[in-house]
Write a structure and sequence with these properties.
Length: 171
């Protein structure tokens, strides 16, 4: 059984890397949305930014799958978006590990939804305001071994490693 799974992973990695990356990113976003809906979780602006970055990875991967000449560019874009994801999730993990006193001192930057912050402050200022985080972003929420931000950090790391390896080992 283990050999069959490793053979399947190897086949997907070698022949359908971009398609696998896109499907994986889309599944991550869909699972997050389903869990928000059925477990009544509220995504903070940092969580929403994480979802957008997974969507950007999926779009870059689909373009790489459809346009064979663009594979190097799309792998570089995947690495870039995954690195941005590591930054966003590092910030959220940091906020989640603050003490109660430190959380109480945070500005309420997570009070408004991300779209509202972008509309009110402009794109760059809205993103930076949301990136500062707040008490809402410091909530741990759902947990299965790791929480959402930690799982996203793991998946972004996997995207960076796999895309970098594929970038340098493919013909």
């Amino acid at each position: 059984m283990f050999n069959k799974i490793t053979k399947l992973i190897s086949t997907v990695y070698q022949n359908y890397f971009e398609l696998g990356a896109a499907v994986g990113a889309i599944l991550i976003v869909c699972i997050a949305i389903i869990m928000d809906t059925y477990m009544y979780l509220n995504a903070c602006p940092l969580c929403i930014m994480t979802r957008y970055l997974f969507i950007f990875i999926a779009i870059a991967s689909i373009i790489g799958y459809l346009v064979k000449r663009a594979k190097v560019l799309t792998r570089l874009l995947t690495i870039f978006f995954a690195m941005l994801g590591l930054v966003v999730n590092s910030r959220q993990i940091y906020l989640q590990n603050l003490s109660e006193e430190e959380i109480a001192m945070l500005a309420p930057n997570c009070g408004m939804p991300l779209e509202t912050q972008i509309e009110f402050f402009g794109f760059y200022a809205g993103i930076m305001n949301a990136f500062q985080g707040g008490p809402t972003c410091a909530q741990d929420g759902w947990r299965f071994l790791l929480n959402f931000a930690e799982w996203a950090f793991v998946f972004f790391s996997i995207y960076i490693i796999a895309s970098t390896l594929k970038l340098f080992t493919s013909k």
